[in-house]
Amino acid sequence: MARTFVRQESQIRPSFTYDDTLAAGIALQTGAASIEGDLNSLRSQVKRATGDANWYAALSGRSLATVHTDLADIEGKKQLRRVQVLTDVSVTAAQNFELLSVAGAEAPTLVAAVALSQNGAVVAQSALSGAGFLVHELIELAGQNAISPKNLCIVRDSTTGQKIQSAGKDVFALLQYESTGADGAAFDDTSAGARVKLSFVILNAGLDDLIACPVGDIAGKTINYAYVARINLDAIPEDAWLPLDANFVDQATAVDVTRQRAYDNQAATPVDQLTSAFLDLEAAGIKWSIRDDLEAELFTVLEGSAGGTSEVQVKADVDVFNVDAVINDFNAGIRARTGGTRPIHVGVNDGVLESTAGDLRVLGAAELLLDDGNQTGSTWAQTSGIKLSDTTAEWDAFETAFGEVSLLNAIAQAYNASSEAKTYANVTADANENVDVSLADGNLDVALPDMSGGSFLQDYDVFVNGELMRPGVDAAANNDYYPGTTLAGAAKLKFEFKLKTGDVLCVIKKIA
């Protein structure tokens, strides 16, 4: 037996037609005539957003969470680049090392970076300090091989700009940090403080290691040098990848490194990523946002993992949220109009469309239709389902018949109007014409029903021994019977003929 669904707020049915091929545009918002149409709009948008063949398929690309993680990793990736110091450094006679003066702008302007996680000028920390630090050392911060330590500096003659050589081999220098200096501290000129020096080196005969440069080949020279700086990927200046000779400038006098310059330099060239990458938001409340030309936020990733409040936000200044995915999979359902007084949840509770506060109104711009899977294969000809109404006149007719009441109220009224309550009563004593006949008058064995409601002439049928009697308003009507002394409570009737003991009355009451 078919079931009638009368509680739409809890028994809304699934879409009959699933369509994720709707074209993008404002028609997705204005063209839907039903919840099914709205859901198909969302299916089409999610399909475009994911880029997959079907809106319900598993994501074949990166999710927003993965993109967030990858971008955090990329932004925080450590990079090494050359930073040029154009201040002339004169190497003291009879020595193959040189203490760099901070006051004289010879030392790097960045802080000391000893640990691999520290940004700054990459140095190897000596075991020496004070007067003992004023010697040549071969101490290195290990790099990819023995001849490429990370604290290796390029050296140039400050006059000619050419490489300085010793026995046909290029002269380099190792940037070294006093043992008393702290990782991440600024260099200084204090004895036994955080001083920094260059120890000049060349390749050995086997070209597989570094050895001290002979004093005679470097002492008395005036040089410029380029040291190695460790920075995050998002701090790399736009000129970082220019050839060394075209970028021989001091970091102190170069333009500041900004993401704007990095973006400008990137232009329209895509970044191809073959391995996983991450953009980490390291503290609660930190966000990553994309803004429009008026600097209004359009898309924001907000960190809130500690309190379970991390969000991916599409902000209010977005004019159109165009999700053009093959599959639009909202695993936890959809919450709509959460800023209003009557928010709607779709699928938040499994299989339920609900208003979490106030009324739920289902409105079709044209007609509202209800359908379910049982219609398929039935003899029902209207394939789109059952209409709520066909014309405006039907609403008027409903109001005339029942008033502006609920469907349940109208159904109850219609049911009650069609109900018939029967009362049988035996005549227990002869009753002359035009006298009250009732239980109270001692001539019936059962009380007649209340007959004061509705129309006495239209809403009650009275039978005597199976014969239908004709009612009258009063005795003057000269019909079969008419109202007695009272119709309220247990009704009394008067008949225009004599009733005899053993006669049977039947009263059918047509209203509740």
Walk me through this protein's architecture.
There is one protein chain. Among the domains are: 78-246, no CATH class; 419-512, no CATH class. 13% of the residues lie in helices and 23% in strands. The protein has seven helices and 27 strands. The longest helix is centred in the first third of the chain and has 16 residues, at 35-50. Mean pLDDT is 86; it is low at 245-255.
SSE topology sketch:
Blueprint: H1 8-11, H2 27-30, H3 35-50, H4 64-75, E1 78-90, E2 97-99, E3 112-113, E4 120-122, E5 124-125, E6 152-157, E7 165-166, E8 169-170, E9 172-177, E10 196-203, E11 210-212, E12 222-232, H5 259-266, E13 287-291, E14 297-302, E15 311-314, E16 334-336, E17 344-346, E18 353-355, E19 369-370, E20 386-387, H6 392-402, H7 407-418, E21 421-426, E22 436-437, E23 460-464, E24 467-468, E25 481-483, E26 493-495, E27 504-509
Parallel strand pairs: 3-4, 5-9
Antiparallel strand pairs: 1-12, 2-10, 4-12, 6-9, 6-12, 7-8, 9-10, 10-11, 13-14, 14-15, 16-17, 17-18, 19-20, 21-27, 22-26, 23-24, 23-27, 25-26
